[in-house]
Design brief:
The protein is about 40% helix and about 15% strand. By secondary structure, the chain is α/β, with parallel strands linked by helices. It folds into 2 domains: about 1-150, NAD(P)-binding Rossmann-like Domain (Rossmann fold, 3-Layer(aba) Sandwich); about 155-255, ProC-like, C-terminal domain (N-(1-d-carboxylethyl)-l-norvaline Dehydrogenase, domain 2). An 8-stranded mixed sheet has the order 3-2-1-4-5-6-7-8, with helices on both faces. The chain starts with a strand and ends in a 15-residue tail after the last helix. The structure holds NADP nicotinamide-adenine-dinucleotide phosphate.
């Protein structure tokens, strides 16, 4: 049995609480948040606490709070030589106070309190200072059926940066598409099979091989027509920049005619 103390009450902490509560290999010792009202609804199921000095003994302390607050909170922990991890893709391992054994348990997924999530679809990126702690965190990932990967700091930073492209930027493009369909009174849902197929294709093809469309084909008339149809300058800018990037990747722009991409 792994005993865990959860710190934070936001999107990630709430999903972790649900996942840990559902598995018999993990016991949630305590759940701390600076504002106790966020945890009141769980008070009959777990020991909730807002006073950090009252934290009890546990195998792992998981800090799932805003990135900027992680370092200070780790300094306030009233113990030493324990395994303390944060859940951030971008916070440096060394920002955790060195009085404890430091680690990262970064769930590479998008979490919202109200959106259901299956942890078997949540890869956990594990980083540790001490080799033995990797096995503890690996067991924790196993307990909630998550795939896990041992990464170093530059690799975690690269994954976090890449995640912004595949998640946040892609989602903003969905938002643009939503505005475009709405402007003509057509249902955005009609695009959903295309959205799903675009992601599904990556099971068998690299992003390079999967690309299609007017920029890759260099269909100049279509590109011109699309640009003329866009009302907002920012949408025109996005269209132009992504078209340029696709052309460069696929060798359809003058400047990249003889260049080959590093990975296909
Ligand atoms: N959301 C995601 O998709 C996602 C994915 C992977 C990793 N992460 C990482 O997981 C961590 C938590 O993210 P989240 O989305 O769960 O955050 P969130 O929903 O915004 O919740 C933030 C939590 O941090 C606490 N907090 C904020 N400032 C604090 C301070 N100065 N001192 C103590 N506690 C403070 C808040 O307490 P109050 O309730 O009292 O305000 C709240 O419990 C972050 O490191 C984030 O990078 C997030």
């Amino acid at each position: 049995m792994i005993s865990v103390t959860l710190i934070g009450a936001g999107n990630v902490a709430q999903h972790l609480y649900k996942a840990f509560s559902a598995c018999k290999e993990v016991h949630i010792n305590q759940w701390h948040n600076r504002r106790l009202e966020q945890l009141q609804m769980f008070k009959n199921d777990v020991d909730i606490v807002d006073d950090i000095t009252l934290l009890k003994e546990a195998d792992i302390y998981i800090i799932a709070i805003s990135d900027d607050a992680v370092a200070k909170l780790s300094e306030q922990l009233p113990f030493s030589d324990k395994l303390v991890v944060h859940t951030s893709g971008s916070v440096n391992l060394h920002h955790l106070d060195k009085k404890n054994r430091r680690g990262v348990f970064y769930p590479l997924q998008t979490f919202s309190k109200d959106a259901e999530l299956n942890f078997s679809d949540v890869p956990i990126c594990i980083e540790v200072e001490h080799k033995a702690d990797y096995h503890v965190l690996k067991d924790l990932a196993n307990a909630i059926t998550s795939p896990y990967h041992r990464v170093n700091s530059p690799q975690r930073a690269a994954l976090h940066l890449a995640a912004v492209f595949v998640n946040n930027f892609t989602n903003q493009l969905y938002r643009v598409a939503h505005e475009i369909t709405e402007s003509e009174g057509v249902d955005f849902n009609i695009l959903k099979p295309l959205i799903k197929e675009t992601a599904k294709k990556l099971d068998t093809l690299s992003p390079y091989m999967a690309q299609t469309g007017p920029a890759k084909r260099n269909d100049k008339k279509t590109i011109k027509k699309h640009l003329a149809s866009l009302d907002k300058d920012i949408h025109k800018d996005i269209y132009k920049l992504l078209t340029k990037a696709i052309k460069e990747t696929h060798g359809t722009s003058a400047s990249s005619a003889f260049k080959k991409p590093n990975s296909k």
